[in-house]
Design a protein that fits this description.
heterodimer; A: alpha/beta; eight-stranded mixed beta sheet; four-stranded antiparallel beta sheet; 11 helices; globular; B: alpha+beta; 12 helices
């Protein structure tokens, strides 16, 4: 799958569905101060490929996902970069043109399915509405299409779900409805911002299995944002790791998870609970943590942003900004350890 | 379910009252302008069930004639006049559609059925009350619809788009809220010609009252829209390519319905009162067309105020209407 995958800023891949180059986002605080929450984000996503975005809270993962489809909150602003999708720069489209892309060619789903659905509308109507907005089909056709989509996302009783209000559905069912909304127009790209974070473990597994199945059936490319290493490793083809608004490492999933290059990735993986072999209960060893806390976006460290917490830091790390370097098999790493 | 029952306690009487005034020609025994020159300020006609011999008789009244002093009235006990249903009376067009001459109640000649007495021209107060209610109640209704329409449009624009649109609309709203509306209404009404047809007067009143009052609903609706547009499902819908008109129509405006209904239940009585006030002061609906306001205007004469209690009937009905509307607003 990932044989052709170009991580990082490799130009001119003809089969790239989504090309993000040097994307930068600023948020304006209440007092008018600006914080650069995303910088120099570049990656490619090929047709049918799944790219995972891994990182801590506040690392810029969600901002990256939102910025791609122009869904930043009013205080967020793209300050630089290019997002080319199907050969068009999404950042320069008018609102009307962007509305035609969103939901039709590229869809986005969010963390909390409960609040992504209007509590006062029937689930089926909310799916049908997406088709209605884009296809302008007659209402009956939209309902049929929605019902078919509900069946595709795994509802046996699609009629019952169609007429149900969101409060009558479980969290997993709601997320399925949201996925049906996202895919009813058969987009080529699905951006998923932690779609399973609010679900319990078994439901989470079901949703991941569903996404894996749909990806295959619909030839869907996915940008999957998560803080869950194991989940990403089981789902994605390639991964990018974000820290403090930068992509610090990218590469194939095995390379990132099994042979991490960046000290941050290594630290992050060290903190993953090991499961059964480490035991449960009072005798269990304490889960390791990364010392310190992520830096304040308004005051980034002058050099490497991970430097204050890095176990492997060099003398020069506090002063020099690392640039992305090629690493491993078609990957990149942003760390001075790999500087020549 | 309980809540729905409680709302019905307000809706049913209101619907009944509106039905009554809409079909005023049928329910009223007489035309609102029919004068009985011999019976000025006649008290409500007593309804009897037993005749002079003490025998039971179908409901009947006696003819009122001037008494010996010439100041009041007495009943002419020689001739009982039966009250009858669906009697032939003055011809009229029901709802402006069907020509007929049937009235719900009537009485045999020569008596007059004056259940709420008469005014200074001997016009039946009940007939005027029903006809006047049509003007007063619907003035409130239409003016509130106008206010809410403007308020909904401007409030949702301000709340949804924010920035300078919000600033301009809301400063405008504050200006309108700061205006002393009664004096503005008086000024505007005084500025416009007095001698215009009753229909024109009515429409003028409605549009004045309705236009001036848009600010309060607009502010409330803006607040609701402001919170509704921040909902995650609005962002989610945006992610699926929903345009502004879809977002407003499907996700944002339905949220404002609660406020709109409550505001309607509060504004309608307020605007009924505004029409009554203007007509009371002689700037609203003009004679001989009745409205609750110009009927109460009679009370500006001292002898009417002190002597003829039945002339207060429009005020009594107003109080009931207000109580019912406020009950409705509380239960919505």
């Amino acid at each position: 799958m990932s044989s052709h995958a170009a991580c990082g800023a490799r130009e001119g891949e003809p089969e790239a569905l989504l090309q993000v180059r040097d994307l930068a986002v600023h948020y304006v605080g209440a007092g008018g101060e600006e914080a650069a929450v995303l910088e120099e984000a570049s990656f490619d996503l090929a047709v049918g490929e799944t790219l995972g975005v891994l990182g801590e809270s506040g690392g810029g993962k969600s901002t990256l996902a939102l910025a791609v489809l122009g869904l930043l909150p009013p205080n967020g602003r793209v300050t630089a970069g290019r997002v080319s999708f199907h050969g068009r720069d999404l950042l320069r489209l008018s609102r009307r043109d962007l509305d035609q892309v969103r939901g039709d060619e590229a869809s986005m789903i969010f963390q909390e399915p409960g609040v992504s659905l209007n509590p006062c509308m029937r689930a089926g109507d909310q799916v049908a509405d997406v088709a209605r907005v884009h296809r302008r089909w007659p209402a009956k056709r939209c309902r049929e299409e929605a019902r078919a989509m509900l069946e595709l996302v795994g509802f046996d009783d699609s009629d019952g779900v169609f007429g149900a209000y969101p409060h009558q559905l479980s969290g997993g069912q709601k997320q399925r409805v949201v996925i049906a909304q996202a895919l009813v127009c058969r987009p080529a790209l699905l951006i998923a911002d932690e779609p399973t974070a609010s679900l319990d473990a078994t439901t989470q597994a079901e949703i991941v299995a569903l996404l894996r199945d749909l990806r295959q059936r619909l030839g869907l490319a996915m940008l999957f944002v998560s803080h869950d290493v194991a989940l990403l490793h089981s789902l994605v083809d390639r991964m990018i790791v974000m820290y403090a608004g930068q992509i610090v490492e990218s590469g194939s999933r095995d390379q990132v998870v099994l042979k991490p290059s960046h000290p941050y990735t290594r630290e992050l993986l060290r903190c993953v609970p090991g499961g059964a072999e480490k035991g449960v209960g009072p005798g269990r060893p304490r889960l390791p943590t990364i010392l310190g806390s992520p830096p304040d976006p308004a005051r980034w460290p002058p050099g490497c942003r991970f430097e204050p917490r890095c176990p492997d830091r060099l003398e020069s790390c506090g002063a020099r900004r690392p640039e992305p370097r090629p690493a491993g098999d078609a990957g990149t790493v942003r760390c001075l350890l790999y500087d020549d | 379910m309980r809540r729905r029952r409680k709302i019905l306690w307000a809706v049913v009487p209101l619907a009944a009252l509106h039905g009554l005034v809409l079909l005023a020609e049928f329910f009223a025994p007489y035309h609102y302008a029919t004068q009985n020159r011999m019976l000025p300020y006649a008290p409500p006609t007593p309804v009897h069930f037993f005749d002079q011999e003490g025998r039971f008789h179908r409901p009947f009244v006696y003819e009122l004639v001037p008494d010996e002093t010439g100041m009041g009235y007495r009943e002419d006990l020689t001739r009982p006049c039966s009250i009858r249903f669906f009697v032939k009376g003055e011809p009229y067009r029901l709802l402006g559609l069907f020509s007929t001459d049937r009235h719900l109640l009537g009485v045999d000649e020569p008596a007059r059925l004056l259940l709420l007495g008469t005014d200074g021209f001997g016009r039946d107060q009940l007939s005027r009350l029903l006809h006047g209610g049509r003007i007063s109640l619907f003035a409130g209704f239409l003016a509130a619809a106008l206010s809410l329409g403007i308020g909904l449009a401007l409030g949702s624009l301000a709340g949804f788009y924010g920035r300078w649109i919000d600033a301009v609309i809301m400063r405008g709203a504050e200006l309108f809220m700061a205006l002393p509306w009664l004096y503005l209404l008086l000024g505007a009404r005084a500025f416009l010609p007095l001698s215009i047809s009753p229909v024109q007067t009515f429409l003028l009143l409605v549009s004045l009252i309705g236009t001036i009052g848009w600010a309060r609903p607009a502010r409330l609706i803006r607040g609701v829209v402001l919170s509704a547009r921040e909902r995650d499902y609005v962002l989610a819908a945006k992610g699926f390519g929903a345009g502004d008109s879809y977002l407003l129509g499907r996700h944002v405006l339905p949220q404002t319905l609660g406020v709109v209904y409550t505001q309607a239940a509060l504004l309608i009585p307020l605007y009924i009162l505004a029409e009554v006030t203007l007509s009371f002061l002689g700037l609203g609906v003009a004679e001989p067309e009745p409205s609750w306001g110009n009927m109460l205007g009679e009370l500006q004469k001292y002898h009417v105020l002190t002597s003829y209690w039945w002339m207060f009937s429009p005020g009594l009905v107003l109080v009931v209407v207000f109580i019912v509307y406020h009950h409705l607003a509380r239960k919505l």
